[in-house]
């Protein structure tokens, strides 16, 4: 997976979900479809929603850190990741 996977942008470093031993998102989706015997409908929507949710979580973490006066340990501000995740959500929907 790329460095924009999961919470990597929030943490400022790759997480366990970025391990090269794990399948990338398209491969994992294909395995899920094969195991379930069904096609994942509206895949682009689901990816966009996932990125949007991560952006919301990132904004919440940033808010709590700022409210507590803690600048963060691994990353200056998880809020820096919000715009990137929203961009990924737009791209998943095929929008610039």
Which features characterize this protein?
single chain; 96 residues; mainly alpha; 4 helices; 0% strand; globular
Low-confidence stretches: none
User: What's the number of domains?
Assistant: 1
Mean pLDDT equals 82
Number of strands: 0
What coarse outline follows from CA principal-axis ratios? globular
Any idea what the radius of gyration is? Answer: 15 Å
Quote the beta fraction: under 5%
Name the structural class: mainly alpha
Helix content: 55-70%
Number of helices: 4
In whole angstroms, how far apart are the ends? 22 Å
Tell me the series of helices and strands, N- to C-terminal. Answer: HHHH
Q: Major β-sheet, in short? A: none
């Amino acid at each position: 997976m790329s460095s924009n996977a999961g919470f990597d942008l929030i943490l400022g470093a790759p997480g366990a979900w970025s391990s090269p031993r794990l399948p990338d998102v398209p491969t994992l989706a294909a395995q899920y479809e094969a195991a379930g015997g069904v096609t994942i409908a509206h895949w682009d929507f689901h990816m966009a929603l996932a990125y949007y949710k991560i952006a919301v979580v990132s904004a919440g973490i940033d808010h709590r850190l700022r409210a507590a006066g803690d600048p963060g340990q691994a990353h200056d501000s998880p809020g820096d990741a919000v715009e990137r995740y929203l961009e990924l959500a737009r791209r998943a929907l095929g929008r610039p």
